[in-house]
Amino acid sequence: MTEPSLDIMDIPATVSSPQVRADPGQGLICLAGESYPENTFEFYRPITEWLAAFLQRDERPLTLEIRLTYLNTSSVKCLIDLLDELEEAHHAGRRVALNWYYDLEDDRAMELAEEFKEDLTLPFAIIPLQRQG
Amino acid sequence: MPNLHDLRGTLSSQGALICFNGPFTHGIIEELGKAVRKYLEIEEVQKSALMDVFSVYIEATQNVSNYVTRDQWTADERLRLNAGIIVIGHEGDHYVVQSGNPVQAPDAELLRQRLDRLGALDKPGLKALYKEQMRSKRGPDGGAGLGLIEMARKASAPLEYSLVPDQAGLTFFSLKVIV
Which chain A residue has the Cα nearest residue B66? Predict the structure, then answer.
């Protein structure tokens, strides 16, 4: 009765949409880059679906890694859906975590992460990154 | 046709750095956004200030393009509505993002109500409203409400706007955000 395991998802970044990597083996979803796509809700739908499917089919821990340098308000809304899903799993006793990386020089990125964190109880790390190069 | 030398002089003398007038597409929003960031990087603006300007620019232009691409319009309406203008410039020590586009009269009224409501809120009030709106389901406007709140939060002064009815029965909406 076990459902087939999930595929790896790998979506390359564009100017306005982040790279997305989701790996069931590692229990990791990573979003990296800029997020202000033309159709934000369509862009995020497969990610939300992947996350929901993983939580349903797999019992292993799951980490969401955010390495977004910019999010428009539509992306913020979509990210809330992802985080709500994770928070629910956390309440149900699943091992889930969120690691949010931001550019040390960008106060705004840190403030945004902190605003998200205010409403959540799951393990949520906000991690500054030194500028490369 | 306008005299470009004079037009450019007018724009420069009023602090305009980058401007675009015409139909907004996603590609144009991306390219102009790159230009805005490049410009601010050359001016060695602090990262957080740069991101505030960029964020206001994105919300302003995407609000216009989301409005134009709503399902409810006929092809003819869409053509008439898809005429935006965006100007990014300086005013004293501040960066200013101004955007304008034609809207239908009922939407003009909606904008007036929303912006007047935002104008009455202080920063904590704006944050509370932002948090409330970011969890609300998507409305028929595709989320323009949140964009306006975001711009108000990034702004260093209350948002300024004007609504001017035109002869074609539309209302020209213009918004000024001082960052």
Answer: A38
Tokens coding A95: 């091992």
Phi, psi of B66 (to 5 degrees): -65, -35
Q: Quick one: which of B81, B31, B93, B83 has its CA closest to B57?
A: B31
CB atoms within 10 A of CB A7: 11
Cβ of A70 within 8 Å of Cβ of B51? The answer is yes
Structure pTM? 0.93
This complex has an ipTM of 0.91
**pLDDT for the residue A2:** 56
Inter-chain residue contact B26 with A16, CB threshold 8 Å: yes
**Which residues are within 8 A (CB) of B90 and not within 5 positions of it... i.e. 6 or more apart?**
B15, B17, B96
- Do B112 and B104 touch, CB atoms closer than 8 A? no
- Contacting residues for A51 by C-beta, under 8 A, at least 6 apart: A22, A29, A62, A64, A82, A85, A86
Contact by Cβ (8 Å): A96, A125: no
CB neighbour class for B128 (10 Å; exposed up to 12, middle 13-18, buried from 19): exposed
Chain B residues within an 8 Å CB radius of A115: 127, 131
- The structural domain count of chain B equals 1
CATH number of the A9-129 domain: 3.30.750
Residue B145: predicted pLDDT: 80
Q: How far apart, in whole angstroms, are the C-alpha atoms of residue B146 and residue B65? A: 15
pLDDT tens, residue by residue, B74-127: 999 998 999 999 999 999 999 999 999 999 999 999 999 999 999 999 999 999
Neighbour-count burial for A55-75, b at 16+ CB within 10 Å, e otherwise: beebeeebbbbbbbbbbbbbb
Q: Which domain holds residue B56?
A: 4-178
Maximum C-alpha span of chain A: 51
Whose tokens are 């906000």? That residue is A126
Residues A66-80: tens digit of each pLDDT: 999 999 999 999 999
